[in-house]
Amino acid sequence: MREISCEKITELVKNLCIEACCVVTKDMYEAFQKAKDSEKSPLGKDILGKLIENADIAKKEMMPICQDTGMSVVFVEIGQEVHIVGGGLEDAINKGIAEGYTQGYLRKSVVSDPLYDRVNSGDNTPAVIHTQIVEGDGFKIKVAPKGFGSENKGILKMLVPADGIEGVKKVFLEAVKYAGPNACPPLVIGVGIGGTMEKCAILAKKAAVRSVDSKNPNPKYAKLEEELLELANKTGVGPQGLGGVNTAVKVNVEVYATHIAGLPVCININCHAARHADGEL
Ligand code: SF4
């Protein structure tokens, strides 16, 4: 049994919060450059140039890419041979979030009660934590701060099998159009297909924080990713919603088995600040 201390987890999460909020990932930076080269609208091209400049300044000064440093979504993969020592896993992660957002001067955007009090929790906790137990003795973690300009534009629909691919495309386009300029395009769009209602939402989130360099390992779904990207870019929403051919830089699709009577579809939209930082212990 391999032991991992809570102290190490907290330290890692703290650093990942700061990195995710201040450093645009290499794949996303390259996607901005590619989008700038292909953009037909002069205003869109100019905006993409500014996003590149913004990314350069943020990295150099270690300042946030965007003022909305989001609610932290954390994906953890823990090997079944791992024993966490010195406290609880979720407490260790939340301590890391609190330290990262405080020491990194990142905006705290979480309210403890969603409906009545809506008082800021003061340290951006709690995070939304998804834990998966896997084989082995590894420990992998992904911290993905999520702004709500884009999060608010997600859609989940419980389609039926007869709706098929056309039904999936209809829900996808509905979400892209609903998002319009408010989700701060160019977007990375996560599409979850299958599972149950809650599984489908998690699939979409996983897809939204997957690298823009990646593609679904199943060629059919990889092709669907390309078709959906084309559909998004035909809407003409463009960079920052001011028109152009780069409404999205990538569509990622994640799938899971589902019931004979169902075809759940969820669209989770990520803005141009498609932040995520990965670490392992
Ligand atoms: S949607 Fe994204 S880019 Fe827009 S304000 Fe929120 S975090 Fe920032």
From TrEMBL:
Residues 11-278 form the Fe-S hydro-lyase tartrate dehydratase alpha-type catalytic domain. It holds the Pfam family Fumerase. InterPro entries: Class-I_Fumarase/Tartrate_DH (IPR051208), Fe-S_hydro-lyase_TtdA-typ_cat (IPR004646). Keywords: 4Fe-4S, Iron, Iron-sulfur, Lyase, Metal-binding. The keyword Iron-sulfur applies. GO terms for molecular function: 4 iron, 4 sulfur cluster binding; lyase activity; metal ion binding. Belongs to the class-I fumarase family. PANTHER family: FUMARATE HYDRATASE-RELATED, L(+)-TARTRATE DEHYDRATASE SUBUNIT ALPHA-RELATED. This is Fumarate hydratase. It comes from Helicobacter valdiviensis.
